Amino acid sequence: MIRALIVFTVAITAFNAAASSEAAWASGDKALQAACLKASALKGAKAAGSIIHYGDDVGYSALLISGHYPQAFMHNQPGKELCLYQRATKKAVIQDADGLVGKHVDSFNASQ
Fold it and tell me: What is the value of pTM for the model shown?
């Protein structure tokens, strides 16, 4: 009887830890996406892919964002930005990423 109670207690504890961890990751992913979209300069910015989490030794996650350039001279052209999110400080930084995928990659592959 005591053995069954111990096994039950351990199972419940392990389940709660896993659920808490999943909930924490989901909450962190929402915070990352919100911070990245807020930092973006693109109009109608949205996530253009899945979040890439680097290890804790690096401490960053990355998200590709797509939208349209708001400047009049850009004539509403589509654009991409790469957001790096530092998990420890919850700070998002943005860099233009139009050359990340597209014709540059295609032209490189064609030369191979």
Answer: 0.72
- pLDDT tens by residue, the chain, 112 residues: 565 434 444 444 444 444 458 888 899 999 999 999 999 999 999 999 999 999 999 999 999 999 999 999 999 999 999 999 999 999 999 999 998 876 554 454 555 5
Instruction: Give buried/exposed letters for 60-95 (b at 16+ CB in 10 A, else e).
Output: ebbbbbbbebeeeeeeeeebbbbbbbebeeeebebe
Taking phi over 0 as left and psi of -120 to 50 as alpha, with beta for the rest, 71 belongs to beta
